Amino acid sequence: MSLNNLDQLYRSVIMDHYKKPRNKGALEGSNVTIDMNNPTCGDRIRLTLQVNNGIVEDAKFDGEGCSISMSSASMMTQTVKGKTVEEAQNLAHIFSDMMLGKEYDDSIDLGDVEALSGVSKFPARIKCATLAWKAMEKGVQNESENK
């Protein structure tokens, strides 16, 4: 597949998650709630998680922001569901490295998240893409510390 076609595919995936977000809304009975925002562009997110016995059983988000921010939140919630807290944190580190243009473990299937790889070329948009992931990291860390 040519680079131009791959770029177009990635844009399509991002817009699909933006227009039809997965896991959007409030999670009833969640035991983790994190509110975060990106003051430089106005993105805001409320992430709710259900974490039991070290497993992220469910994840939902609500908020508003640009297509990068909201599609990243949609992708992140899909990606971490069913993962252990440790796996979710590892995925967040891989995502962060990808956003910063660093080498990362590409043997792990990131699914739709891979479509956000091009954001690394736009430093002003990296905070948009990482907002939901940072909220998830903070949420699972707080949940682990409160045990």
TrEMBL record:
It comes from the Bacteria. Pfam families: NifU_N. GO terms for biological process: iron-sulfur cluster assembly. SUPFAM superfamilies: SufE/NifU (SSF82649). GO terms for molecular function: iron ion binding; iron-sulfur cluster binding. InterPro entries: NIF_FeS_clus_asmbl_NifU_N (IPR002871). Residues 10-128 form the NIF system FeS cluster assembly NifU N-terminal domain. Belongs to the NifU family. This is Nitrogen fixation protein NifU. It comes from Viridibacillus arvi.
